[in-house]
Write a structure and sequence with these properties.
With 211 residues, this protein is of the alpha/beta class. It has one domain: Rossmann fold (3-Layer(aba) Sandwich), CATH 3.40.50. The chain contains seven helices and five strands. The chain is globular and about 50 Å long.
C-alpha cells in the first residue's frame, strides 16, 4: 500500500510537469524575458502569496538574493509575506486584503516585477496586490493553478500549472520559479559586469511580448 501511494504521487507530479512542458513554455518565456530585462536595468522582483505560496515566495526570493547555480552579484528580491510585523499591522489597521498592496506602495517603483503566487488565483490580498502593482507601473506575473482564477486577465503573464490539485500546483510553482531564476542568472552573468544601480527615474519598462 505505501509504495503505491508514493508511486501515485510521483507519477501524478511527473504527468503534470509534462503537461506544463507541453503548454507553458510561451508564458514562461515572457516571464523570463521580463525578469531578465528588469534585473539588467537595475530593478527588483517582489514575490507574495499565502500559506504554501508564501513559503514559495520566500524560497524564490532567497534564490535571487543568494544564488541559484552561478556565482554572481546578489539580485534584489523581496517576499512581502515575510515581514510578520508589517503583515499583521497592515492587516489589523487596513484589512487583510491590503497586506501586499500597502507594502508595494512603499517598496515598488515602475519597472520592478511583481510575482503573485496563488494556487486558486482568487486570494483577495494577492488580487489586490496585483491591482496595486499595475497602477504603480510594475510588470506582473501570476503563478496559479489551471483555472487562473481572478488573476487570469489581470496579470501581464499568467503561468497556470495544468492541475486543480494543490500539491501538484505547488510543485510546478517551485519548478517554474527555479527555471526563471536560471534564465535571469545566466542573463546577468553573461554580461560580465556588475548589476546597475537600481533605477530611480520612475520610467516604466516596456517588456510585453507577443507570443
Amino acid at each position: 500500500m505505501t509504495i503505491n501511494i508514493l508511486r501515485n504521487n510521483l507519477e501524478r507530479s511527473v504527468e503534470v510537469h509534462n503537461r506544463l512542458l507541453s503548454t507553458g513554455l510561451p508564458q514562461l518565456m515572457q516571464a523570463a524575458d521580463a525578469l531578465a530585462k528588469a534585473y539588467c536595468l537595475g530593478h527588483k522582483a517582489l514575490f507574495f502569496g499565502n500559506g504554501g505560496s508564501a513559503a514559495d515566495a520566500q524560497h524564490l526570493a532567497a534564490e535571487f538574493l543568494g544564488r541559484y547555480l552561478c556565482e554572481r552579484d546578489p539580485l534584489p528580491a523581496l517576499a512581502l509575506n515575510a515581514n510578520s510585523s508589517a503583515v499583521t499591522a497592515i492587516g489589523n489597521d487596513y484589512g487583510y486584503e491590503q497586506v501586499f498592496a500597502r507594502q508595494l506602495q512603499a517598496l515598488a517603483i515602475p519597472g520592478d516585477v511583481a510575482v503573485a503566487i496563488s494556487t486558486s488565483g482568487n486570494s483577495g490580498n494577492v488580487v489586490e496586490g496585483v491591482k496595486c502593482a499595475r497602477r504603480l507601473g510594475l510588470f506582473t506575473i501570476g503563478l496559479t493553478g489551471a483555472s487562473g482564477g481572478r488573476l487570469r486577465g489581470l496579470v501581464d503573464v499568467l503561468i497556470a500549472a495544468p492541475s486543480d490539485e494543490t500539491p501538484r500546483i505547488q510543485e510546478c510553482h517551485i519548478l517554474i520559479g527555479h527555471a526563471l531564476c536560471d534564465v535571469v542568472e545566466q542573463a546577468v552573468t553573461s554580461k560580465h559586469m556588475p548589476l546597475p544601480v537600481a533605477a530611480s527615474s520612475g520610467r516604466v519598462m516596456d517588456t510585453k511580448l507577443t507570443v
